[in-house]
Amino acid sequence: MRARPITCCFTGHRPSKLPWGRDEGDPRCLDLKRRLRDAVEAAYEEGFRHFICGMAVGCDFYFAEAVLDLREQRGDVTLEAAVPCPTQADHWGEADRKRYQNLLAACDFETLVQDHYGPGCMQRRNRYMVDHSALVIAVYDGMPGGTRQTLEYALRRGVSFVDLRPVEGR
Questions:
Q1: What is the pLDDT of residues 77-136, one digit of tens each?
Q2: All structural domains of the chain with their residue ranges
Q3: Buried residues in 82-95 as b, exposed as e (16+ CB within 10 A)
Q4: DSSP-assigned letters across all residues of the chain
Q5: Is the CATH number of domain 4-164 3.40.50.450?
Q6: What's the rounded mean pLDDT across residues 31-51?
Q7: What's the pLDDT at 85?
């Protein structure tokens, strides 16, 4: 079921790069979550059944939750956690760690990309996701950073992507 032609991954921003920060009740965040759910549903309609998430705080959590919602409606959807290293969530706040653990427990598969934290492990995780996918859904604001690097890598690899701006009209 984890074949590349039916696999879609995600890349997106952390709360510090989002205009609403951590306020998920902000109308702009609610709008992004709706558009993200629509993009996941559209990917499903195009034949994607396996979804990979890097499990970072922020938009990755939104994506994982959207896929889990879709899985409840469609029994043939799977979610894979691409964990860059075992200590990914160790320095996060308690609420983020708990949300991470709940999402991780709900995943159908977990891939540990590297057995320890080190330089480049987040980029290795991102490359793993792109290398195993035929589509990338992104929440990208045009600024430099890991999301941009992931999309540039996807372009070099010939992997299609859907770009959702954090705020429409920007």
A1: 999 999 999 999 999 999 999 999 999 999 999 999 999 999 999 999 999 999 999 999
A2: 4-164
A3: bbbbeebbeeeeee
A4: ---GGGEEEEEE--GGGSTTTT-TTSHHHHHHHHHHHHHHHHHHHTT--EEEE---TTHHHHHHHHHHHHHHH-TT-EEEEEES-TTTTTTS-HHHHHHHHHHHHH-SEEEES-SS--TTHHHHHHHHHHHT-SEEEEE--S-SSHHHHHHHHHHHHT-EEEEE-SSTT-
A5: yes
A6: 97
A7: 96
